C-alpha cells in the first residue's frame, strides 16, 4: 500500500514549542481517559455489587434490575459500604414492603440522615434522599437510567468527547509513514465507536441484549485513541532522536 506523502507540516518537523503544546495536551487527555475508566469501574462497575465492569453492570445501569428497586441495586452495589449490613437490610425491606411514610419517619429517615445526607443533601447532582418523595421514587422497581438522565448524559458525552477526539486526530493527522487510508480510518474510528457507545445506552434501556455494544463502543474508541496518542508522541520525540543517532553512526562509519 502506498504511504501518504510527507509534507512540510508533520510531527517530525514542527517546532519545539508546538511539540510541547501537543505533548502536554496528549498527556493530559491520556490521563483523563484513564481517570474516566477508573470512574466507570467505581460506578457502573459496582452496579452488580462486584468490582469490575461486566455485562450485568451495563444491564443494571441502563435497563435496570427489574426484580427489585433502584434503592436495592445501589445498596447491593456502589453504596454497599456506606452503611452497616443491618441498616442496608432495613432499607431494602422497607422498599420491598411498599415504602410506607410511617416507617420512613420512625425508622428509615434516621438512617438516611446519618449515612446518606452528608452527600445527597448537599450535592446538587445527587438526588436528595432525605426527602420522602424522592426516596419513594428510588424505592420503586428499578427500570434503569431515566430518559431525561440519558438525554443529559448523551449530549454532554457527544459534545465533550468529540472535541477530545478531534484534537487527538488533528495531531495524529500530522504523523508520517502511515498509509493515508489507514490514517483516515484511525482518525474516524473513535467517532464511530462513540456513536455506537451512546446509541447502545438507549438500545440497552429497551433491550438488555444490547449491553454488549456498550463495552464494544468504549473499548473501540479507547484503543484507537491510545494508538494515535502513542504514535504521535513517538514521532515527536523518539523518532527524530533515533534518526539523529542513525546519521551519526553513518558519519562515523564513513
Describe this structure in words.
GO terms for molecular function: translation elongation factor activity. Keywords: Elongation factor, Membrane, Protein biosynthesis, Transmembrane, Transmembrane helix. It comes from Thiomicrorhabdus xiamenensis. The chain crosses the membrane at residues 20-42, 158-178, 184-203, 210-234. This is Elongation factor-1 alpha. With 254 residues, this protein is mainly alpha-helical. It folds into two domains: 16-43 and 145-246; 68-138, no CATH class. It is built from ten helices and no strands. The protein has helices at residues 16-42, 55-63, 70-75, 85-96, 101-115, 117-120, 132-138, 147-172, 180-206, 211-253. Helix 9 (180-206) packs antiparallel against helix 10 (211-253). The longest helix is centred in the C-terminal third of the chain and has 43 residues, at 211-253. The radius of gyration is 25 Å and the shape is elongated. The model is unreliable at 250-254 (pLDDT under 50).
How is the secondary structure organized here?
Blueprint: H1 16-42, H2 55-63, H3 70-75, H4 85-96, H5 101-115, H6 117-120, H7 132-138, H8 147-172, H9 180-206, H10 211-253
